[in-house]
Specification:
The chain is α/β, with parallel strands linked by helices and 234 residues long. 45% of the residues lie in helices and 15% in strands. It comes from Streptantibioticus parmotrematis.
Length: 234
């Protein structure tokens, strides 16, 4: 049965792969994006999740076009990497405002319709960095670690209404961002990955789709690593 799906930050990379996975399965898929030209084939809504009014407008547009959101994938995120002593207040707070507070906004708004329907699936895209830590990424790691505590709290709040919320924590994924690294940087990263390769965006998308399926109806508050073993034990 076709569901109403929203993927934030669904215009490129992991988010686009997730949106395509749901569309290929026959779901109605909306994506949010902040800039540029969105990909064809989806209901594309321009939205900056740091702005509560834009979030509300986006949801109204999506609900009018394809009904209340039944599956939410909170993927939108930013980085502003810097060593601690050089990291400004804005570097820190802006990353948390998008990655953590922005996720709070979109989850809170989606939960309205899910509570009325007494069902729903929410998946948050975190990162192995949030579990393992990474020098120069204290802001990003804090925001992605915060998603775990947020998800587990909401799982306890909404579980009685048949709403699940889980976290997918990707490792290094073969996207435009990682392709911009030098060959030496890419090789150094792989020394810590037991599987010895980068993930494909579609591999992350497959885990998200599983957590959004009927087969995963009894999984909530979980953190699923898709990292080739990089964060083992964390």
């Amino acid at each position: 049965m076709s569901r109403s799906v929203l993927v934030t930050g669904g215009n490129r990379g992991i988010g686009l792969a997730i949106a395509r996975a749901f569309a290929d399965a026959g779901d109605k898929v909306a994506i949010t994006y902040r800039s540029g030209e969105p990909p064809a084939g989806f209901l594309a809504v321009r939205c900056d999740i740091t702005d509560p009014e834009q979030v509300e407008r986006a949801y109204k547009e999506i609900e009018e076009a394809q009904g209340p959101v039944e599956v939410l994938v909170a993927n939108a995120g930013v980085t502003r990497d810097q060593l601690l002593l050089r990291m400004s207040e804005e570097d820190f707070t802006s990353v948390l405002e998008t990655n953590l507070t922005g996720t709070f906004r979109v989850v809170k708004r989606a939960s309205r319709g899910m509570l009325r329907a007494r069902k729903g699936r929410i998946v948050l895209i975190s990162s192995v960095v949030g579990l393992l830590g990474s020098a120069g990424q204290a802001n990003y790691a804090a925001s992605k670690a915060g998603l775990v505590g947020f998800a587990r709290s909401i799982a306890r709040e909404l579980g009685s209404r048949n709403i699940t919320i889980n976290v997918v924590a990707p490792g290094f994924v073969d996207t435009d961002m990682t392709r911009a690294l030098s060959d030496e940087q890419r090789a150094n990263i792989l020394t810590g990955v037991p599987l010895g390769r980068y993930a494909q965006p579609e591999e992350v998308a497959a885990s998200v789709r599983f957590l959004s399926s009927d087969e995963a109806a009894y999984i909530t508050g979980a953190v699923i690593p898709v990292d080739g073993g990089l964060g083992m034990g964390h």
